[in-house]
Amino acid sequence: MSAGEVIEPMLATLGEPPAGDDVALEFKWDGIRCLAYVDDGVRLFSRNGRDITTGYPELAELVPLAAGHRVVLDGELVALDSAGVASFERLQQRMHLSAPAPALVTAVPVVYEVFDLLFLDGEATTALPYLQRRELLAGLDLAGDAVRVPAHFVNADPAAVLTAARSQGLEGIVAKRLGSTYQSGRRSRDWIKVPFNQTQEIVVIGWKPGGGRRSGTIGSLLTAVTGPDGNLAYAGGVGTGFTQAMLEQLQGMLAPLSRPTPAVAGIPRVDARGARWVEPVIVGEVSFRNWTGDGKMRHPSWRGLRPDKSPARVPRVTPPVETIDGVMQTLGGSWRVEVVRRGSVTSYRIVHGEDVIDWLPDIADVERILTRAGVAMEALQPAQRRTSA
């Protein structure tokens, strides 16, 4: 491998947060993966190897920040909202533009959160252990208006770092083995991602016309994921989470992709009724509660398009096994509090309809949230426990 090649990024595996002194914890960013090649200029590539350099002109500052070093960096591109929190919805305004107008660059600035170093002055660092790569990265002092090297925490309590991530409005954490090498193109258990909410990359295979306020546009999308056999498998429909701008953009993209039959077999008749089928080339991302027994996403909500992902590589995400050690709920079950154990970490989860607040580290956090909602702790009664995957 040479610095001139387009490197496939190493990928994390969904799992429970490990504890121990051989693990570093990092914040998980709600953006898109980006590899940056820096010498006398900058080249940027997405996770699927697409050149996105011209879409993010502010990252030209990597050249002076690198101070003459030739480097290949790995990190996440994020767009910040007015409170300084990474917003995937805001990033959508930049993701599809190869030459954004200066006004948009100013209105929706991005930040490159750099968390790994793959090449340094012509020498590959991928065979070095994570901790040594991090030390070399810190030595570059990459701190600018659009570039940051976020903190990593060694020998830290996962629950405490999860609490810090939640308080900052972040997406979760990633646990990385201190001695792990950088395994290009592999999804490795040396990196474990622990998101607050489950997300799934999907391929759009069709859509259904809307009614009422959505009359004349898209009512819902029909989706698929890559099955164990490598073929697409139906994953259900998603009809919430769209803005009007998203619907208009999707309609324009899907119109020329029409096909007479679905690209996926085994779609239930009720789901297929009235559907308009399209070629399976557009990748998006949804958040959802969990999987149903027949392989559909429960309570999915649209997050946005993922042009940085390939439609051939959208495997179903299987969450780690969790044990519910205790459950309390209000009369009728409209509010539910669960004590959740994932591996060695115990936390609390509040469920209210389709709203879920997870990874709460302390019962005091539960009480504070319920009190704000006008629910007294005394109103909770014991309920049935369950174990889920």
Keywords:
single chain; 389 residues; alpha+beta; D-amino Acid Aminotransferase, Chain A, domain 1; OB fold (Dihydrolipoamide Acetyltransferase, E2P); 3 domains; six-stranded mixed sheet; six-stranded antiparallel sheet; globular; EC 6.5.1.1; DNA ligase (ATP); ligase; ATP-dep_DNA_ligase; DNA ligase (ATP) activity
Structure description:
It catalyses: ATP + (deoxyribonucleotide)n-3'-hydroxyl + 5'-phospho-(deoxyribonucleotide)m = (deoxyribonucleotide)n+m + AMP + diphosphate. Keywords: Ligase. Its EC number is 6.5.1.1. It comes from Actinoplanes friuliensis DSM 7358. Strand 17 (290-291) and strand 18 (297-298) form a beta hairpin. The protein folds into three domains: 11-195, DNA ligase/mRNA capping enzyme (D-amino Acid Aminotransferase, Chain A, domain 1); 198-305, OB fold (Dihydrolipoamide Acetyltransferase, E2P), CATH 2.40.50.140; 322-388. The longest helix has 11 residues, at 244-254. The protein has eight helices and 25 strands. Strands 3, 4, 5, 6, 7 and 8 form a six-stranded mixed beta sheet that branches. The protein has helices at residues 62-66, 88-95, 102-107, 130-139, 158-167, 244-254, 269-272, 363-372; strands at 11-14, 23-28, 32-38, 42-46, 71-79, 110-120, 123-124, 147-148, 152-154, 172-177, 187-195, 198-209, 218-226, 232-238, 276-277, 283-288, 290-291, 297-298, 301-305, 322-329, 336-342, 345-352, 355-360, 381-382, 387-388. The two termini are 39 Å apart. By secondary structure, the protein is of the alpha+beta class. It is globular and about 65 Å long. The mean pLDDT is 90.
